[in-house]
Amino acid sequence: MEKLFNGLMIAFIIVLLSGVYFIKKYENLYEENMTKSAIYFQNPSRTLLKVTSLFDDGLFLIHKYEYHHKEKLIIKAKILFISAKNLLKQKSEYKPLLFIIDNILYKINSNQKINILKTSEIFHIEINKISFVEYKKSIMLFEKYKKDVKRVQMMLYLILLFIAILMFAIFIIVHQSNILKKIKYLSETDQLTKAYNRRKFFEVIDNHKDIYSLIMFDIDHFKEINDTYGHDKGDYVLKTLIKIIRDNIRKDDMIFRWGGEEFFILFKNMTLEDAQKMAEKLRILVEKYDFNGLKITISMSVIASKHGKEIEKIIKELDIGLYEAKNRGRNQVVVKGII
Fold this sequence. Notes:
By secondary structure, this protein is of the alpha+beta class. Helices cover 70% and strands 10% of the residues. It is built from 11 helices and 5 strands; from the N terminus they run αααααααβααββαβαβ.
């Protein structure tokens, strides 16, 4: 009997350790892959963010050149577009963006006029298409990793069947729940600013049933901040700015990082007039705030809409409004009305 008992104890320990090993193995795989998937979607490509910044800066220099006709402006613009082009050569999926940039460079070299708003619209549409493809890839990854979770659960049930340790099973389930919460948080938020990301933006817009107002804003001359004071200072400005805004909006209002220094604020069940007042309030707060010896301003575009409207059209209108604010001298709010 004693030998049988010792044999059963050894078998119990082997089964227990084996179960713990396989659960930990699949758990680590699940957490690692889900984290990669979340980061992959919330920032699909640093290249795209950099290219967008270079492209927008290049268009802005062309716009300035049309009014001032300073040759150095067009030279700087060409350098920015060529830099963006070099970055885009990394993937074949970026060919539509390369074509747009090549077309701009051709027009610059042949002294042809460039329709800035139309070009910007086409470029950002292509960027959104690529982002949507990345979104679909992310969903596929999430589905794959859900199957990994089921494997963990199956292993857990087997262990419960053979060793009947209820407390051990509860511990694993609670631990898994914490991992899922952590992964869900990572998949929905921007790690730097803690604002929500694009994936969460589309999810919220799709599920919202009533009227809402949207503000699109970005930091004026943000590239100069990074170039002059370094990216650490730029990161500080981004984090502090979002904290200021979050502290001065309603609890249910949501901030999303669209990319780089561009953000959205979603006001659920708020009229256009109230959203405009809120935008002015936030603009003034930011303008007066001391960012450790640095003063910054933001340009804003405001719109109101109802559920069911095409979000791509709304974003396009907001983007146009933001360009108008920039062209009028920055640090101001442009109201695009109700769609």
